[in-house]
Design goal:
Oligomer: single chain
Distance between the termini: 40 Å
Order of helices and strands: EHEEHEEEHEEE
Structural class: alpha+beta
């Protein structure tokens, strides 16, 4: 688990056989844990959580949305021959067809049949500097994000979403902005 992971203290350890199986698979000591009640771990108010909103084992929100147009702008700012893989940002949903970085202004959206509240913009960590295929670590995209998307001492890419109603998300679902901060 990443350093500072909150919620592990609320996890239930699996049995020793499961720990041993994962340890053999990974070639290092590992423990398997599970959250018996996903309502137990709430979204931290410091990350836009409201009373009663839960996150399970996700980091700061149940869903992370990024934009292909925003990534294309970032790729152009970086230069180079190979565009970044969106997997570096670990999104749950990727949209295309919106203006680059317009998602920063959204406050409420609908994807398919699910309404979402934007809890916060997503500050990016050093994990984005590791190529998810080759595992080679570099300085991008944090270096370029710091030049173009840095404020409050952090670099930003994507938005964190909290569902307002249950439902399914499907590939190709329409995305509708129901409220934004641009007036």
């Amino acid at each position: 688990m990443p350093v500072g992971f909150t919620g592990l203290d609320q996890a239930i350890p699996a049995d020793d056989e499961a720990h041993a199986w994962f340890s053999r698979l990974l070639g290092r000591t590992a423990r398997l844990v599970w959250l018996d009640d996903p309502r137990r771990r709430t979204i931290d108010p410091a990350h836009g959580g409201l009373p009663g909103e839960v996150v399970s084992f996700a980091w700061d929100a149940p869903l992370l949305l990024t934009s292909a147009a925003s990534l294309r702008v970032l790729d152009a700012q970086i230069g180079g021959d190979t565009p970044l893989d969106m997997a570096r940002f670990r999104p749950n949903a990727v949209i295309d067809g919106a203006e680059p970085y317009v998602e920063d202004s959204w406050t409420d959206i609908r994807i398919g049949e699910v309404d979402f509240r934007v809890s916060e913009l997503c500050d990016r960590c050093a994990v984005t500097t590791i190529d998810p295929v080759t595992l080679v670590k570099g300085k991008e995209p944090i270096r370029t994000l710091a030049k173009h998307r840095r404020w409050d001492g952090k670099t930003w890419f994507g938005i964190r979403l909290v569902p307002r109603n249950p439902g399914r998300l499907r590939l190709g679902d329409p995305v509708t902005v129901t409220s934004d901060g641009r007036g």
